[in-house]
Amino acid sequence: MKSRSLPTLSSILEVERKFCSLAVRELTANGGNPPFRSLRSLGQRTIHDIYYDRSSILSSSGIWVRQRNGQWEAKIKKGGNFTNSRFEEISDPRDISRCVRDITGIDKMEEEQFGLQSIATLSTLRKAWVADSDFKIVLDTMDFGHTVGEVELQQQASFDTTLNLSIEQQKQNKMQEMDERIARFMERYSWAFRSGTPKGKLTAYFERKTIEP
């Protein structure tokens, strides 16, 4: 007799912790004590982002819609704070359209930028590494000189729709577990990360725009 599979829902979850910059000149496996268990360079690439919103309705709801190198993405904040963030990521234009419609009431598809307006355009030089198999370390330098880094964990997670816990609570539990792993990782390798309060790309972008003549 074949066992019946339980109904599940799958999501891409991302948890990240920001840092100001690297505390070492070059990130290498043996650059500090203790050394990384493993470190693989992903090289560097240029990222071109265009962020969209409508009267700050999305950002004030914790949603960021962007075109990254021509591909649409939406990041939906699921908790944490600026430095320690938790997101659900969606990339299907139909899902993005539904998300925008639920928040703004605008029912448009990607051909019309989901009825949104461009609010920021920036280019980033990104250096990236994978440490200890799972942790992605990125260092971003914007075209106007600002630098910020992140340690990220991303996971495709499946959730059981028949459990007593809601899907949202299951997501929160999984992201809490991911965040705790990042915290332990950054504490173990504290020699790699410069201390201080990091400033995000968009925050630095808008501050720069404000003081420009």
TrEMBL record:
InterPro entries listed in its UniProt record: CYTH-like_dom_sf, THTPA, ThTPase_euk
Transmembrane regions: none
Superkingdom: Eukaryota
MF (Gene Ontology): magnesium ion binding; thiamine triphosphate phosphatase activity
GO biological process: thiamine diphosphate metabolic process; thiamine metabolic process
Name of the featured protein: Thiamine-triphosphatase
